[in-house]
Amino acid sequence: MADHDYGYTKWGKDWVRFAESLRQTRPDPQLPSARRMARDGKVQITFDGRTVRAVVHRGRGTSVVTIEVAPMSAGATAEISRQLSGIQPLLTDDLYRAIADAGHPPAPVLDSVDCSCPAATPRCVHELAVYYDMARRIDDDPRIALDVQGFFLASTGGGQAPAEATAQRWIALNSLDPAVYFTVAE
Amino acid sequence: MGTRQKLPEARSDSQATYLPDRHMFALWTWADGAVGPTPPVGDVQTVPLVVPTPDLGRLKVSDVDCVLIEPDRLVAVPLDSPGRSVDVWRSWIAGGESALPIAAHAVPDATGVAVTTAEHASGVFRRTTAVGAEMRTALTAKLRPYQVRGVSWLRETIETHGGAVLADEMGLGKTLQTIGCVAGRAEKGPQLVVCPTSLVGNWAHEIARFAPDLRATIWRGEPLPAVDSGTVVLTGYPTLRTHSPALAGIQWSTAVFDEAQVLKNPRTQVSKAARTIAADARIALTGTPVENHLDELWALLNLVAPHLFGNRAQFRRRFVRPIADGSPAASARLRGAIEPVVLMRKKSQVAGSLPPKIHADLICDLTEEQERLYDRLLEQVIDDGFGSGAQRQAKVLAVLTSLKQVCNHPGLITDDLGELSGRSGKLDLCTDIVANNLENDSPTLVFTQYRQTGELLVRHFAEQFGVSTPFFHGGLNQEQRADIVRRFQSDDGPKVLVLSLKAGGTGLTLTRAADVIHFDRWWNPAVEAQASDRVHRIGQTRTVTVTTLTTGTTVEEHIAAMHNRKSALSDTADISSVAELTRLDDDPLIEILRRKRVN
């Protein structure tokens, strides 16, 4: 592991693992250039719920990578909510370990991965670059790791008032209904 | 997420949004799909709020023109067609608990992706109102709304995270808010306040004044007597560094670190000593803009909440490096990440509940050198006697002058002016304040009565900060004076200006500064007030902070006490006060001049 720039938090590390699987025995020659693409800003990611869409530039070509992340299990959602109750999500490595020790590792599961490039290999360099860029973003702000698994949507009841009695500090902007901005939802 | 054609009740309604950090309401209006003109009930301020887009399909963060008012005023303030948010908050103030519309709690987080929840807003409002009622009996001072919130915030944060950083701008009353919190925790066990040595006396003074039920004792390293609930031990950082083993084995309910930027380097002995203090809650106070010094910020966060900010390398990679590279997203992320444990308010944000002028009267301590010199001078006077008649008046005046100069700096009497720092508690404190103002880009005026003291200040500021400080005094001609004023008023003018109280006290307009320090005390408060008015006059748009430095236990305290007794004196008062002293017999006179020993 020559390059520790990606995945220096446990939350980011999960995404590095998609590129550098522990089961991998031979070095993958595509990894250095995937890391370089992520570092040089060749990957532009947008989120739509649990869908990660990335435009990846390489040379003169552009590919679009679409990754669907599976929703977090109910058990993990409940465990994380319990650990975070009442406070703003401060996702430290300690918290990660606590959640994993409780039997609900928060590592994401990918439902599907698709790239528009014509490469015949099972994993293309664009896809790998997206994993690294996700790791970089999550290292910066681990909340993304939960967001992309639908955690915040699930825990705020999809736009309704939070289910739990504990006073939550923040509610996601896009889970509020502008129609009841001035009035109270019935 | 359904979008309706038209929002009901959306025609030019007044809205009230609760700002939890300030315990104030932002009043604004909404007319025909946009933010309208502010209600005409106060000065306009811009506050970021979450509002609907013109097509009402989405919510977004935007800067809204608001008028900020305190909760007491919301009930009576005249508003045209108050919207639901106003009605609901008015009912909360009356003790009701109706559901809040989004407009009532539309405060965004630092990254602009989340909104304060209704539960949080109403919870903060309810708890802060309760704390306000409690503080009215616990403290002898009346807290402003944002200060009440400071106390309730300290409590909540200590409960959730075990520690808190209160980083309000200087002059907003961090000490008072902390005393409010400490008073509420007195039952839980002994408490400890560590501050710069020059401020220990000030803490003792403020605790005695605001929370007389607390027992404050100053600890200078002697064997510590048994401490129990209700006791607050005050000590300086140097004592902590050299005598920290004496504190081992004591479980404090609260440990307060004032001017906590002292602990910025975690490897120093004093930082290590601070970390070994066993406390249920740790409070760090700082007035320097923490966001400008991220490594220092990490040290403070690590001190008060090590479980949240344990990993320095991670903090550096996540925030320090990207912010140094100029990433605005990283700054917003940082603000979001520290928000749970750092409360940081600026004077401009709470201006609505501030008077146009804040007075900060600080008590500084004498160093040992000053104590020795002060006592020696007085011994000599007692031996020589004051004489009688006209000679007596001259002699009294001379003695007063030299004692006051010892308070300013011992070198002014001994002529040993080599190294200046560390020898005068007052000069060190003044230097701290000026350093803070330089950080904040707030120009400062420093007034003194003595030409020599002024020159010493100019030299000290040059040595400490590398700034060239003009000195406005009576020896300058008209042209030189006009030049100093013109240069100071220009935008890139000097950051500090030293003025002689008599020469600079009248007529000038120096409104580029909003901070005034009175380095020594003059007999007549009217003269000081007139000097302070150099900045507090037409054209001044900010809250003016007037700091007076009084050396505790000395004759300066007597002068300060006279200020309080007769706050409006005539112009001749300065003469008559000295004359009054002259008329006293030797014994009571010496009694006034002698140092009052504390403890």
Question: Which descriptors would you attach to this protein?
Answer:
heterodimer, A: 186 residues, alpha+beta, four-stranded antiparallel sheet, 34% helix, B: 599 residues, alpha/beta, seven-stranded parallel sheet, six-stranded parallel sheet, 22 helices, 19 strands, 42% helix, disordered N terminus
Percentage of residues assigned to helices of chain B = 40-55%
* SS content category of chain B: alpha/beta
Largest sheet of chain B: 7 strands, parallel
The best one-word shape of chain B is globular
> Sheet with the most strands of chain A?
4 strands, antiparallel
User: What is the CA–CA distance across the termini of chain B?
Assistant: 67 Å
Proportion of beta-strand residues of chain A: 15-25%
Order of neighbouring strands in the sheet with most strands of chain A: 1-2-3-4
Unreliable stretches covering 5 or more consecutive residues of chain B: 1-10, 567-573
Low-confidence parts of chain A: 155-166
How many angstroms separate the termini of chain A?
A: 55 Å
Question: Could you say which overall geometry of chain A the principal axes of the C-alpha atoms support?
Answer: globular
Count of discrete alpha- or pi-helical segments spanning 4 or more residues of chain B:
22
Strand content of chain B: 15-25%
The chain-level structural class of chain A is alpha+beta
- Output mean pLDDT of chain A: 81
Proportion in helices of chain A: 25-40%
Radius of gyration of chain B: 26 Å
Number of strands of chain B: 19
**How would you spell out the order of helices and strands of chain A?**
HHEEEHHEHHHE
